[in-house]
Amino acid sequence: MTDGVLLIDKASNMTSHDVVAIARRVLGIKKIGHCGTLDPLATGLLMLTLGRGTKIQDLLMSEDKEYVGTMKLGVTTDSQDADGIIVEEKPVPAFDPAVLEAAFSKFDGDFYQTPPMVSAIKKDGVPLYKLARQGKTVEREPRFVHIYAHQILGTTPDTIDFRVVCSKGFYVRTYAYDIGEELGCGAHLQSLRRTKSGRFSVENAFPADRLKETPREVVLGHALSLPEVSRLRGA
Q1: Domain count, the chain
Q2: Average pLDDT over residues 115-123
Q3: 86 pLDDT tier (thresholds 50, 70, 90)
Q4: What is the pTM of this model?
Q5: Apex CA 150: angle with CA 147 and CA 152, to 5°?
Q6: What span, in angstroms and rounded, lies between the C-alpha atoms of 87 and 78?
Q7: To 10 degrees, the CA torsion angle through 57, 63, 68, 70?
Q8: Exactly one of 39, 78, 81, 178 is catalytic; which is it?
Q9: In degrees rounded to 5, what are phi and psi of residue 17?
Q10: Is 64 one of the annotated active-site residues of the chain?
Q11: In the predicted structure, residue 132 carries a pLDDT above the cut 90
């Protein structure tokens, strides 16, 4: 079975393209795509479409996502995450839980989010991250996004662990940045894990760091057929 969807649990310090390239070599399948880029820093669910499964890639990418992550308060970076260069540091006051909840709640529902400069979005055919490396900043068109649910999972004096369920095209890095701005101390995304995409969960995903050492037949045995994908989606 070489037509379907393979759920991968991406490790940190890998790009989504890295995972696709490894899967192509291991499986001997050239026609492989992925449903939604994960930054190198991020881990978790990366859905690979195999063979004819690439025809439903856009459909799968359009589904809502769930993430858990940690934001670091008091430090702002140029990329809005821990891989970036620090651009500002501020003291972090002792926030009352109600103040933190109010900051998160401000971003519930529908709103416009401005994508970060360090992103794969293109301006006149050039990815923004390449312009950012040249020290350039250009105007980005805000995106209409939606947050269905959020949860503050835990806090320390300078970090917040959180969960968010959001629409496609949502930048969790920017979410951390915006909440930091709302709190007045700044923040960046310290870690991120995608746990769900639509009805698919990382709990059933194959570890990316085991792809190279696992026989082709074993990896393909974890893939979902197109009829299975349809049933799981409730289609």
Answers
A1: 2
A2: 69
A3: very high
A4: 0.92
A5: 155
A6: 6
A7: 80
A8: 39
A9: -65, -35
A10: no
A11: no
